[in-house]
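Readers outside the structure-tokenisation community will struggle with the description of the input data as it stands. What matters is that the chain and its backbone geometry are given together, residue for residue. For illustration, here is how one protein appears when written out as sequence plus structure tokens:

…
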Amino acid sequence: MRFEDGLNALIPHVSQVSEIANYLILEAYDFARLDDFTAATGSLVAALRTVNSLGTEPLLASQLLRTVAHQRIVRAISLMVADGNFSSADLASLQSELEQTDFHEGTKLALWGERVVAIEAIRDPLNMDPQRGSKNGVLARAEDFLVSFDTPPRMLKYLPFSEHGIATATLPLAEGLQIIGDMPRIQGSFPDDPVLQLFANPDPALAAIRAEARATIVNQLGIVAVALARYRLEHKSLPATLDNLVPTYLADGPIDPAMQRPFLYTIDDRELMLGSLWRDPDATVDPISGGDAKCVLRWEITSPDRVSEGP
């Protein structure tokens, strides 16, 4: 892509990556239906690698799509390993691929890249947005909001992707979330215009940090889910605690990256529940279970060595 085109840079490959990942997920389900779980593993690994190819792009759109697409893949993995006949090697391959996923560096890179583009846009809006003359361009609409700020420093205070937000994003995830936890989100005067909402919020970087947190939690839950499937395959039962997965199936005890405490884990004769206490204020649907905004994985236990993904 042509980064030198600034706000006018076209990124059609981002939607193409999402479409390819969706196709690979469907292919994995089809292979699983045919009881070819090794082929299903190959499709899921390919899907993960496809979305992670966006990891070095300095664009928030790329990174946000990557997090959303990755969560869809983890949901597919959690559904399939719940009651699929994956081999130990297949499960190890899936777990290894998930363990290599890191959203933190991509978030930082994207926020710096977006700030550079935004600064250049304010310095030279005519050059950055050829539609400026017709008042239909992104920057023309943003300027309608920013025009009341009479000095550049005051205007830059409301520049998206502030230095404070970016600095917060460079902290370990749990620290960044603690800093932004009580910060109110500013509601702009443009409820029907997402572009102007972005400019009306002085720090959309905060939303990016929350998106990173959500994706990181889901990824860690996926890793634990695969480790549970590996344990069940060998022991014909599920562990009483997650500590039983260490060190054979997990190198360290699984820690919720947002809360810096162990994941919730309960198991009885009917259900396994694995989840995080962190609630994303920007989310209305759990990316794993489809329920509320908490990230929770539930498996219905149908027999000591068999489970199915619950509601």
The CA atoms of residues 256 and 263 lie 5 Å apart. Strands lie at 255-256, 261-262, 264-267, 271-279, 294-303, 306-309. The chain has twelve helices and six strands.
